[in-house]
Amino acid sequence: MRKEDKGLLIEKIKETIKEYSAIYLAETTSLNAERTTALRRAAFKAGVKMMVVKNTLLKKAFEQSDIDYSGLYDSLSGATTLLLSNTGNAPAKLIKDFREKKETIPAFKAAFVEETVFVGEENLAALVALKSKNELIADVVALLQSPAKNVVSALQSGGGKLHGILETLSKKEEK
Fold first, then answer.
1. Which residues of the chain fall short of a pLDDT of 50?
2. Which of 8, 42, 46, 172 is found 20 to 30 A from 90 (Cα to Cα)?
3. What CA–CA distance (Å, rounded) separates 156 from 162?
4. Rounded Cα gap, residues 108 and 115, in angstroms
């Protein structure tokens, strides 16, 4: 490959990874063609971009990026498949769901999610449990609405009780 071509590929990889907040490195070399196609389809359905890249080109793209990806460098060995997403846990769920069907492939190497590096197979469960930004916002909104709902509910039930007491008292005075 010519040096100019490598430079173009590095630039393309750099531009691609810049678009995503979650970058996962996985090993998929032992998958046959059928299983690889199934993984690509599952990735597409989950909104995860899947790319197979050379480690040297990926490392150079990381080095040229404005973000510090140095925590991923040690994981750049063997064949590397990039799984890219803007939802932090989507690639982790994809790997977990795909593994439930068969084998232990794709093998999880490392991930860079929202400026945090996760290295090693033992972090996959934590990444699956990781909530997306939208899920966290929904949780915060629900927590903020909860006290207001309780106050409104208390006022409504209190109003009914007060009305009942006044009605009972007015009926007593009439007798």
1. none
2. 8
3. 10
4. 18
